[in-house]
Amino acid sequence: MDEREFSRSGQHASVVGLGTWQLGADWGDVDEKDALAVLEAAAESGVTFFDTADVYGDGRSEETIATFLSSRPDLHVLVATKMGRRVDQVPENYVLDNFRAWNDRSRRNLGVDRIDLVQLHCPPTPVYSSDEVFDALDTLVEEERIAAYGVSVETCDEALTAIARPGVASVQIILNPFRMKPLQRVLPAAREAGVGIIARVPLASGLLSGKYTKDTVFAENDHRTFNRHGEAFDQGETFSGVDYATGVEAAAEFSALAPEGVTPAQLALAWIGRQPGVTTVIPGARSPEQARANAAAGKLPPLSTETLTAISDLYERRIKEQVEARW
To answer: Rounded to the nearest 5 degrees, what angle is found at the Cα of 184, between the Cα atoms of 183 and 185?
Structure first.
């Protein structure tokens, strides 16, 4: 699988990485044996980038990654975690003392002295404009607690503010065929600045797999049940902010665009990976089979012009009006 560089940090990641929110919480139950099998399948398929966060299962996801990597010292995997969502979401909590405490906990969970990449986890919007916040992140680098830092954002405006910061190595943002706004300004700005783009929610919480219908029922502890309208966190994190009924109908149209031998999920991942400026795309997986299939999308040939045009047309007709004004 192709690897791409985070230019500012000199780090590299496979074009298809692995998001590990599913291995921690909020997607139904996944036991440790199954979680370790997912990590193994991804690594064996060429994935060299794992994305996690200190709130995924309150640290469980970080600990599972540590368990796996300790058993596979032969592997080189870039591990990115996130911090900031374990406290009240007010700018006053984003200070150096808290950063050190959060970093200490994640380093213990991951079993490392220095974390490869730490990202602010969708903090309040004013945080992106705070010199003190980014000075504190620079201090973590100077103290060799972290090798590099980035941000995870909800909106394109937040992404653009972060990209202007000279120390930011990466921006993680929702990007998929149901969320195309970042193509307009964010990806060009990131390319110009040498900032890596980590594309998250690539399958619109599974909608773009084409597996769901209007009658699908998700578990009570699955965010696709409890956060459809933003009850627990930003609505855009669930189904990319598209209402479920519209999403299911649009996903059926999207599925029909998949070339022979390519699943709808692989089509979505391949579409994201070909966008200029994308460093890595981080689908999650609940089974080894899903992890292998996702990784295979990083090795597909280029999509046809006809397919690309049809995907853009679907977005314009069915999705754009719902999401572009908000994020």
So the answer is: 105
